[in-house]
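Example 3.2
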Amino acid sequence: MGNRFKIFIWTLFDFANTSFSVLILTTAYSVYFREIVTGNSEVGDFLWGVAFSISMFIVAFISPFLGAIADYSSNKKFFLLIFTYLCVLSTGLMFFVEHGDVLLGMILLVLANIGFEGGLVFYDAFLPEITSERSYGRVSGYGFAMGYVGSFISLLIAYPFLKGEFTPENMINVRLSFVVASMFFFLFSLPFFIVIKEKKFKSVEKVSYFKIGIERVKSTFQNIAKYKNIGRFLISYFVYADGINTVIIFASIFARHTLNFSLVEILTFFLSVQSTAILGSVIFGIIADSIGQKKTLSITLLMWVATAVGAYFCDDKVSFYIIGFIAGSAMGSSQSTSRSLMSKIIPPEKKTEFFGFYSFFGKSSAILGPLVFGLVSSVTGSQRIAVISVALFFIAGLIFLQRVKEEKFSG
């Protein structure tokens, strides 16, 4: 099997899973939960943030163990399959969430996001197995670009179901859009599980995977002094990923309630933003391989600062589109460059374990940001005040990033 074909199949998983992130986290379900499930309650933003943060807390807790276990057992694909279909099933069941079903709506969001985010631990760890180090940035960028193509197409498919707004006669169509997200993820994830083969390593002795997971995580923490550079990067990632996750899950709610976007306008907005996200992932992936991941990541974080500050002052839909285009370019590129930089600086023999920690820092950071945004928004009644705090996460992350050395790990 050629490397190009394997890379394409690997990126097809990104194509599949972003149907969940764009239709559930970013557009349809987030607004549906705020307006219909909670009845536009004043604590709606807070409840949405709480559900997301709970899921991230669980993923943050289990990610290092999952990474170590998968590394030891050479069974990344099996675990990826389990988490993928947890997300697919939970997302499909959102069809049954109606007005007043706040607890059910929150539980399904928690389960679906655990499946989505938990699976990324194993998916990201396949990057070093399908390409060489010199192409990490480019291939990672291709993955995110394919993801945004998937977002674009899944939004187009869901558009007919959502164009009628939240009218009583259109409510079943709105809920069918959640099924669209579920089926899209299911169908386009299949090629990965059929085609991609992982490298197998025979264990010397049979032991409990859980015990090995605990021991390897403990060992990593005990020897963290040996991985100072990785630690510096993870701290930076912890901070700026908080900002990115907060933007993702509150963007549509902000557009709806602060700028009075209709549901159709929100969909049109995100369809437009996907084009810049696709271009950003590819272009910045190529730039990263030319000038380095650290410099490229610094540029994207400056773009994020401009996005957050711009949203605070934004008072019309045209300017919000401009801000969205900047955010789209920064989103794909910052995520893909982070992944490729992590691949570059970690020891190869511990790739899955360290991607577990990468996921841990990214997910645990997302516990705080959504809670802060939701709390500030609910208490002050102003999403503008809540959004300006996001800029501080990007500024701090940029400062911490400057202490990271972009060099291949050497024991």
